[in-house]
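If you are new to this repository, start here. Below is one unmodified record pulled from the training split, so you can see the exact layout before writing a loader.
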Amino acid sequence: MSTRIPGPRGRFFIGSAPEFNRDTLNFLRSMRDYGDIAQFYVGPVPLVVVSHPDLAREVLVTQAAKFSKNEYTKRVLAPYIGLGLFTSEGDFWKHQRHLMQPMFHTRYIGHYAETMVAYADDLARIWQDGEVRAIDKEMSQLTMRVIGKSLFDADVNNDGAAIGELITHSLKLIEEELQAVFTLPAWVPTRFHRGTRYVAAEQNALIQGFIDTRRASQEDRLDLLSLLLNARDENGQPMPDQQVRAEALTLFNAGHETTAVTMMWTWYLLSQNPAIEGRLHEELESVLAGRLPTLGDLPRLAYTEMIVKEVLRLYPPAWGTSRDALEPVSLGGYTLPKGRAVVVNIYGMHRDPRFFPDPDKFDPERFSPDREKDIPKSAYMPFGAGPRICIGNAFAMMEARLLLATLAQRFTLSVAPGHPVVPQRQFTLRAKYGMKMVVRARRDIPVPA
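And here is the target side for that same chain:
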């Protein structure tokens, strides 16, 4: 097998780090020019990029046992979320996944549908015709409120506001470290490390407060915290509080951020495609006739689902996912040494004309029943794939459809005049300058009681 993987030469000592950080999305698309498997350097560290569904499937599915989550990513996230489902490995990860999987069964997550719709309705009652609003922030606040209620039975608009502030702070610190070419050890008392320790300590104290209060009340509520506290392993043992905190923080972070950016990009793409927006309105009026949506309506909101899927193709919140080889691995005609980092180029595959004709076009019909079956396996993976596929993918899809159905039947949104829209790789795929939009009330639409 060949040993030299093609890719950009980069610069001495820093490699391609400046180009990667300056415009990650175009950099990932350009990596396809070197082949379905390519390599670049961030500082002295080589990163292998796979940009073909077959190779992605090998890394995440068929050879998943030969890879672990990327060590650098785990090291960056560990101070904030501990050894939770996202950062754990091996038998411990399998044990936790097995314990938590039932929490995301339809019979549980369906209970949260009313909360999602009610909170979206609260937001709709605040919006005024003609206002300019920061939709990126409003979608983040909305989804944070939903996950706060679903996870802790707390309203982050009231008793849980401190959680939202800390989560926002932690995401900024995570992004700062992920963009750094070189980092100092955690024991060095820099401003960054002091901030990390402060945020981590405050987050743990807040979550522990929820745990202590719930234990003291002996209440069994219909939220994810109760399910975590009631979970028992094969020996009948509960999770230690430290593990409950780690899993709760993981779910809170992942449970609001990804759906928030999905909703932001949904409003943007609808604003740029009035014909698609019009068809969405027709479906909502036909199915809902002005009333609030319910979980039972989702099977009939087929076009709404197609829109969300297409948004996730064009702007996947998780623009890539990374793994480390646990042993020498054969991949795409090359032998990767133990420890080599591999990036699955989700964004690049989602916009590859080989798998999605006219890939930059917003076309929800790609996900119609007749056409969706023609998408190559593993070419579309907004939630990852394999044993470590996002455990909350059904929750996220349910939430996005319900929030969209609640708000879109009453409003149309357009980008504020002069506001630049620039996609940017952060911890998730965000808008560099935020998303300021003009809210317009739709006329002759009954307002739900």
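Two things worth knowing about this chain: The two ends are 67 Å apart (CA to CA). Residues 76-318+357-441 form a domain with the Cytochrome p450 fold (CATH 1.10.630.10).
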